[in-house]
From TrEMBL:
This is WD repeat domain 75. The keyword rRNA processing applies. Residues 760-778 have a biased composition (Acidic residues). WD repeats lie at residues 53-86, 186-217, 231-263. InterPro entries: Beta-prop_WDR75_2nd, Quinoprotein_ADH-like_sf, WD40/YVTN_repeat-like_dom_sf, WD40_repeat_dom_sf, WD40_rpt, WDR75. The keyword rRNA processing applies. It comes from the Eukaryota. Residues 328-653 form the WD repeat-containing protein 75 second beta-propeller domain. Keywords: Nucleus, Repeat, Ribosome biogenesis, rRNA processing, Transcription, WD repeat. Its main location: nucleus. It comes from Hippocampus comes. Residues 756-780 are annotated as: Disordered.
Amino acid sequence: MVEHANIRVVHRGGSKINFRAPVITSDSKFLLCASGECVKVYSTTTEECVHELRGHTDLVTGVLLKPSNHLQVYSCSTDGTVKLWDFFVLSIYLMPEVASGMNVCVCVCFFVELFQLVALHLPQSGDQLAEGLELSAVLPDVKASPESIAFGRGGEYIASVKGLCLVVFFFRKQKTFSFYLKQNSGNGRKNTFTCIACHPKDDVISTGHEDGKIRLWRNFNHKKEYTYLTLHWHHNAVSSLCFTPEGTNLLSGGVESVLVQWKYGQESQRDFLPRLGATITHVTVSPDGALFCTSHADNSKIYFGFGLFSLTQSALTVFAGESVTTDLMVDPRSKALVLNGKPGHLQFYSLQRDKLLFNLDIVQQEYIHELGLQQVEVVKAAFDSSGERLATVEERKPKAAELELSLKLWTFDQQTQSFVLDTTISAPHEGGITAMCFAPAAVDHRTATLVSASKDGHFKAWQQTVSPTQTGDEGPSWECDFVGSYHSLAPQCCCFSADGSLLAIGFQEVVTLWSPATWELLTTLSQPPGDIRNLCFGRLSCSKYLMGTTVKNLLCCWNLLTCSLEWSTSMDVSLLLSDPLSENMAAFCTLDGCTDLFVFKPCEPRPLFCQKAVCPGTVTRAVFSPRDSLQESCDESCQWLNRSQLYFLSQHMDLMTFITQAEEKQLMASNKQLVVDDTVAMTPFHLLLGARRQGGGDLDQPDHPDTSARAQLPQGSAAIKELLQTPAHVLPAATFLCSMFVQSLLISVADSSKTKHIEEEMESEKEEEDSFDEEEDEKTGVVRAKWASMEAGEAAEAAAPAMTRTQARELRRVKKMERGWLSGLLDC
């Protein structure tokens, strides 16, 4: 087996954007988030990801704007590098290289076992890659989270918290002061530090604690004279603190999902922004104070513009939730990726835009934000083949009570363009549901059928029915049509054949085949020892095969015509799935801490494609997504990607996929700037940029036939020269340049009056010329007869030259001149 180099594994979305606090640009137009191995740049207006800063080879651990240039940003990663980006042009300026095994966060260096705060001097080098060797220790023992470190007023000192200790280091004095708290407060709760923030104008340090209190520290430059003021509203640990740029307000957040605003100097005055959806992990304010942003535990960010408690917030969510309990699914209607998201919801995620489309509320209950409370979670979901029906399973596991289980059936409503709840079945099984699937939409099926398997040793078939007494406003209902079991064994997995004529259920070590028409047990399939983990029917030409995996690291293939084992191989398959549009199957195998991919057909022993180490860890969630258009690949190793595209989730919640070289070239070509056709109307900006026709360089020649028809480009002006000749990173705001450009196109008042005077003179001359022409016509009519009689005599004489129109106009002007000065001269 040979790996094919023309197929690559690429990142398609996902990742955690709440791993670190976001960075807001100085103009509040962009939001920069550390996301996996890249930095994503989001627009605060459209919520779209406009850029991805890629260059790191490992997890990005910090993002920071460069103080001297607001168009550049630093990023650091566990790959041991710090990179300086111009996030508008996506270029890297400086990459100081640090020794491997360290995690650099601007000036914070985290070793493998001990976390230390160090200062890194960035060398001034013209090379793109430089090595940073000047490291100096600042604090010997710090906490791993950046929320526990903050710079003080003007960068004069830096403060760090860890455990029950607050440490303040003054750079000029080179002195360190430490302050300790008791382990427990008066009510028995812990005083452990959780976060820290420094006032931008005053020497004040704000610290958050595990018991929900906030302390404002003063006079900490004297170890024995320090004081602190205690604020208390949060009932649980304070996760983030942040001062506004002017220091007039202090923002705090925690598990309550409420953003609290404290008035600095009047701490008794508080404002609240409740019901933000999930636990607040980070709070950030833009440098100009116009935008506020909160990061949440469900991998979402909510930002508020121009007034924290007055305007509606906008939400930005990628993948929500810490883990995926449902399978990865593709909605047949919207082609969106569907999985569980925020607590009690299913999220519909756009694969093309890397953006959350909407959340479907499954639980339909208010989420209670409290640590240790068992919440209702969505654990299973399934679509039918048409996307018209959706089945969900929600459960709650109290510590000292029975399992609360509900099965809900949904139908897509064309009017609301959303799913509407049809039936809720409380306690559908006595144990947890292990698998669930819809029967394919076959011709011989009378009604929709859903099969659910449970740990209680039974599987149930649910069918959609319409009651004769049902009114028009009521929707269809569901009822149990059959209950099956096999030797009191617990079913682990189930699946239907492509035509819906067979149902395969794995009861621990036994595979059973059932007829959905009569619910009769047809046969059982033998296999080597080991519980069945996955079952998949073959499709199209391979429909006579049934594939299965076991916990004993075996991949088995049964022939349904002979009811015998066709072949088997030793392979630790963590996930097996089939392509709904072809005969291909994909098997993710775990080996030496990494996951390998094998694509094969059940009828052929040779794999079509194999890829070693597609990602670290174990892949347990993947899905084939049908393509909008059929791809054409000549290489045999790439043909399995013609009809569908394979997506999978890594252990870091990164959405990965496989892409061919041809498809990558198409994507790169589509990202190029579009050229405007010459038929488009000319605009000032078109003239400003000096657009040329697509006819080659001959158009610039003066004797070219099209040269006279071309619009003249504008002559040089101060606005145009400033815009085109000044480097982009030092230009003023675009709004200022736009006003300059518009003013350069306007005509001044003096020029306007002069132009008006010239136009009046031209109109008067035209009127005089018309009157002169009329007088000449009259004279011509009177003497026309005399000219006719004299025509024969004058024919021999030479004709006198005709007077031009200009000469006639000048003669008329001379006739109308004032001649009084001439009579005065004669009298003298």
